[in-house]
Predict the 3D structure of the following.
Amino acid sequence: MGSGRSPVLIGVAQRSVRPGDAPVGALPLEGASDPLALLEAVARAAADDAGAAALAAVDTIGLVEALGWYPQNGPRLLAERLGIQPRRELTTGLGGETPLVLVNHVARAIERGEIDVALLGSTHTIRSLRLARSKGVHLELPLGGEGRPVAITESKPGSSKREDHYGLSFPTSIYPLFENALRARRGESLAEHARRMGRLMEPLTRAAAANPHAWFPVARSADELVKVTAENRMVAFPYPKYLNAVIDTDQAAAVVMCSADAARRLGVAPQRLVHWWGGGQSVEAPWFSTERPDLSDSPAMRRAAGAALREAGVTPEDLAHFDLYSCFPVAVELGAEGLGLAEDDPRGLSVTGGLPYAGGPGNGYCLHSLAAMAERVRARRGSGLLTGNGWYLTKHSATVVSAEPRRAAPPSPDLSEPEHAPPVLFADEAEGEGTLETYTVMHGRSGAPERGVVVGRLDDGRRFLAELPADRAALEDFEAREGVGRRGRVTHADGRNRFEPR
C-alpha cells in the first residue's frame, strides 16, 4: 500500500451540467447552476468514492480559483455545506497549471506530516454566468466565508500593455502566434500543417466521445477538425473553432488525497489507491509571450515535466498514460516534443479528450484530468503523467501518479527556477525594413477576416508588433501562403505600427 506518509489519491469525482441537464442548486434562472452547489456535489461524490469515513476525516480543503465566482473564503463556504471543520484552507491564483501545483503542494505536506486527509476541488459555471448576462438576470452567488484561505500561488497579468494595445489579450489570439512560429520552424507547408493538426486532435475527440463527463462527446475526423465551414468557422488563423478550448461550460471536479496510513485507517482497498510519485513546476522567462526570444518553443514546459519525472524516478518510456494540457494544438505539440513523444504515440496524449472537447473549465481542467487519470490507472494499472499550463505557455506544472507505490525514496524536489533571461529589445515606434517571425489573422463571428497582427524583427534586430493592412485581400493572402519570413516595411502612425508586406 506504500509507506506511512506516502501521498495517495483515494477518491475522485467529476460533474458536467450540459444544456438540457437539470441544473445544480437553486438560482433564479432556468438552466443555471450555482458554483458552490456544484462544488458541493462533486466534493460529496469524491468523498463517497473514497469511502464512508473519508469526509469526516478531512483536515484540509483546497480550492482552485474559479472564474466569475470570487468568495472571500471558498474553502470555508464548502466546509460549512459539508458539515466539516478542516484545520487548513488553501486556494490558488489564476492559471491552468494551478490544480497540479495545488496537488503537488498538498502531496509534499502529506509527506511532511502536516496534512493527513485533504479534499481538493474546482468549480466553473461560466456557461451559467453568461446565460444570466444574456438574459439580464443578476445571480446572487454566495460570496462570504469567514477568514481568508492561504493562497499557494499568486495572480499576475498574462499579457503586457504592449500586447494588449495590439489586441493580444486572449488565448484565442496569442496561441496562434506560437502555432505559426512552430510550423515555420518545422518547415511545414500550410496544407501539411493543417493536416497534421487534424491528425493530432482527432484521437482527442475519440477520447472525449468515450468520456461520460466530456462537454462535446463527439468523435470527429481529422479533416472535419480543420476544414473551415459555417459550423467550424476560422477564429484566428490557423485555428478554426474545433481547435479552440471551450470555456463556456458548467463543470466541477474534486479529489481526496491522504497519507497511506490514513488510507489504511479509512479502510480503502489497496487496489483503489493511486500513488503520487512526483511533481514539477516552472515559469517562462521572460514572462510575457512576445518578449521571449523564440515563440516556437517553451523551455519551462520541459523543465516542469522533467522535474516531475526526476522526482518520480521514471522516464516517458516507463509510463502507460498521458494527459498533456491541450487548450490549443501547439500546447500538445510542444508537450509531446519536449517529452520525446510521437504525436501519434499509441498510448495516447489525453485521458479526457482535452480542453476543446472534454471541456476547458477555466483554471480547473487539471483536476478533471487528474480524476480521469486516477480512474484510468485504477482500471488499467501502470503510471501516468499529467501536465498543466497557465496563461500563454507561461506557467507550467506536471504530476506523475501510479497504481503502485513508489519504488524508491524520491530525490529532493527540483523547485529552483532558471535565471531570468532578458527580454528581447523592442521598437515600439518602428520604422524601416523588417522580417516576420510569426503572425495571426483574427476573424469575426461571421467568419470574415477582420484584422491581422504580426511579430517581427527590424533589420537592426529589434522586435516589433504591428498590424497588417485592414484589407480583406491582404489578410486572406496571409492565410493562403506562408507569412513567417516575409519581408516588408514597418511604419508608425497614430500610436500603432503597421506592416506593409512585399
Summary: The longest strand covers residues 432-443. The mean pLDDT is 96.
